[in-house]
# Entry
Amino acid sequence: MILVTGGAGFIGANFVLEWLAQSDETVINLDQLTYAGNRENLASLAEDSRHVFVHGDIGDSVLVARLLAQHQPRAIINFAAESHVDRSIHGPEDFIQTNIVGTFRLLEAVRAYWHNLPVEARQNFRLLHVSTDEVYGSLVKDAPAFTETHRYEPNSPYSASKAASDHLVRAYHHTYGLPVLTTNCSNNYGPYHFPEKLIPLMIVNALAGKPLPVYGDGQQIRDWLYVKDHCSAIRRVLEAGKVGEVYNVGGGNEKPNIDIVHTVCALLDELRARADGKSYREQITYVTDRPGHDRRYAIDASKIGRELGWTPAETFETGIRKTVQWYLENQDWVANVQSGAYREWVEKNYTGRAA
Ligand code: NAD
Ligand code: TYD
# Structure
């Protein structure tokens, strides 16, 4: 079996669902159920004995040691993290706690477990750490995309905490020989994406008749990948990646934010036209920029393509259409995630951001 951490969040839940759609290997899912964790994402597995959900913290060394001893996983995929840049600006503490201290404690527990495994299990064991392209910092226009050897230049508390976790993972391989793999992926989008991030926020706000808040000039560039393609890359790296190596994952879809918002509006105009016949574009509002806002990310995914034969299945056009359709078909999910805490976050992040 495998142990997944953070498997009730956006990417982790997609990963668990895809994993069990393709294999019968049991998944132990350790998740602290922060605001971003949602058991409803895994509702279709409620009666499925191949999925064992454990409510807990990756930083709880006693719990993690017990889980490892009890279930003897052959691999661990670490998704658990605080993941939102804007939240890291308002309150970095949780990012330090989970992304740095939590990853460190997880590594310590895994090291002790791995050390005592029988020889063959030791050799076959893998810890795959899921990270982000944001650790590489910001690119100027026309600079080449990030390769795995690009220097680390994180600019937000979020990316700095992920960078620290990547360094710890690297050090545990270098120093203790722990068989680790690291993936650094670009921006994901798709089903179960919490509506604090750009694409789901725009869909949800558009349908609710609310403003579509574009930070700054809207010309910041992100490189978008459909979440299921990220999941297939992780499965491939787990299966065939070389121990100690880093693999960049991306879809080759660099787009300015304003283009993303226009695309979402055009799809909604087509699939769920506004009652007044006007375009959702009317709701676009430019607001005060994010402090320290990275201008451009772009991933060079040629290594994983060349060495492991991975390529994404979706283009941006097919992936974004599926995503908008998913949100239209899952309005109950959308309503349920908009709790009081969500509304408080929206209030905190957007009030006072002058239009
Ligand atoms: P998310 O915020 O949607 O989910 C994070 C999950 O981790 C939640 O279920 C949460 O409850 C859980 N969690 C948080 N702290 C925990 C702790 N201490 N112990 C156990 N569980 C805990 O995040 P996501 O977008 O699914 O991202 C998953 C991973 O992928 C993160 O490590 C993130 O840095 C990385 N990543 C994300 C993107 C992206 O575009 N979303 C891109 C590249 C890499
Ligand atoms: P986000 O989804 O938060 O991902 P990240 O900051 O990790 O790339 O934001 C994607 C881009 O969209 C980023 O450049 C910030 C911008 N953005 C807005 O313009 N308005 C918003 O309300 C949000 C949440 C993001």
